[in-house]
Amino acid sequence: MNGLMNGKRGLIMGVANNHSIAWGIAQALAAQGAELAFTYQGEALGKRVKPLAAELKSDLVVPCDVEDIASVDSAIAVIKEKWGKLDFIVHAIGFSDKNELKGLYADTSRDNFSRTMVISCFSFTEIAKRAAELMTDGGTMLTLTYGGSVRVMPNYNVMGVAKAALEASVRYLAADYGARGIRVNAISAGPIRTLAGAGISDARAMLSWQQKNSPMRRTVTIEDVGNSALYLLSGLSRGVTGEIHYVDSGYNITSMPALDTLRT
Ligand code: NAD
């Protein structure tokens, strides 16, 4: 199918480089005709994001640090001024102090708990509220989560708690906006080697475990996530909202290590 996103305009938040999940999503959307705008966090990342955006024929690239609500407001104001309306948003933003992405969850500090929650969870709600105002003909919203929200994953700690809250936010926002024709979903991706992923202690071991023990015996790529995002952001999923859609080679359905790995 071609042109699934023809005539649709959307904001991609969370590209840091060409390994970012948001970049995989942006490529899949652009290939189907979407017109994209991008945000970046800080000038250093801006230097990487602008040429990537240009590859997808986008020159609407604005700074946005979600810790600062004025920065969110001004990014949304630029979109409003340039486009007037919005059809979709992708929120692929997460952060926690890497010193707390190891050891005991119980040792999480109050400051990092709050910061992790604001950046990785509440920012989606704040952005959704503002984006919904621009989705005058309905729209779609997507965020990124991880299975550490529902099951304990080593070292994921406070990020798991923030992702659990983010997933609950998806359901509440879907209920808030459903009657306005705005759908809200999340993709729960398996581990992928990215900047954020590298902040989690023993990330390499997690990737190897997933590769050996998921039903498909492989890790997922940003292209895998991009294609599923295309489904959730396009009319293909028009009856779907409030869902947490796993793109993890089936790892979430397993209850024990694969027998072949136990035997070797
Ligand atoms: P990434 O490092 O490429 O992207 C993370 C993005 O968050 C970066 O662009 C960074 O600039 C942005 N960000 C962090 N703090 C911010 C702030 N204060 N304001 C604005 N932006 C901020 O890594 P990624 O793995 O592509 O992460 C994207 C999303 O996917 C995150 O929510 C992450 O938790 C989630 N996720 C990642 C994996 C994985 O294994 N990599 C798995 C499941 C879910």
TrEMBL record:
- UniProt subcellular location: Cell inner membrane
Its top-level enzyme class, in one word, is: oxidoreductase
Q: Which CDD domains match?
A: ENR_SDR (cd05372)
Q: Mind telling me which InterPro entries this protein's record contains?
A: Enoyl-ACP_Rdtase_NADH, NAD(P)-bd_dom_sf, SDR_fam
Is Flavoprotein among this UniProt entry's keywords?
no
Q: GO molecular-function annotation terms?
A: enoyl-[acyl-carrier-protein] reductase (NADH) activity
Give the record's membrane topology: Peripheral membrane protein
Binding annotation for NAD(+): 14, 20-21, 41, 65-66, 93, 163, 192-196
- Reported EC number(s) for this entry are 1.3.1.9
SUPFAM superfamilies documented for this protein: NAD(P)-binding Rossmann-fold domains (SSF51735)
**Superkingdom of source:** Bacteria
A Pfam family annotated for this chain is: adh_short_C2
Q: Which positions, given as ranges, span the membrane?
A: none
Keyword line = Fatty acid biosynthesis, Fatty acid metabolism, Lipid biosynthesis, Lipid metabolism, NAD, Oxidoreductase
Q: Which residues form the active site?
A: 146, 156
Name the pathway it acts in: Lipid metabolism; fatty acid biosynthesis
Q: Which reaction does it catalyse?
A: a 2,3-saturated acyl-[ACP] + NAD(+) = a (2E)-enoyl-[ACP] + NADH + H(+)
Question: GO CC terms for this protein?
Answer: plasma membrane
GO biological process, alphabetically ordered? fatty acid biosynthetic process
Listed NCBIfam families: PRK06505.1
Per the similarity annotation, which family is this?
A: Belongs to the short-chain dehydrogenases/reductases (SDR) family. FabI subfamily.
Please give the name of this protein: Enoyl-[acyl-carrier-protein] reductase [NADH]
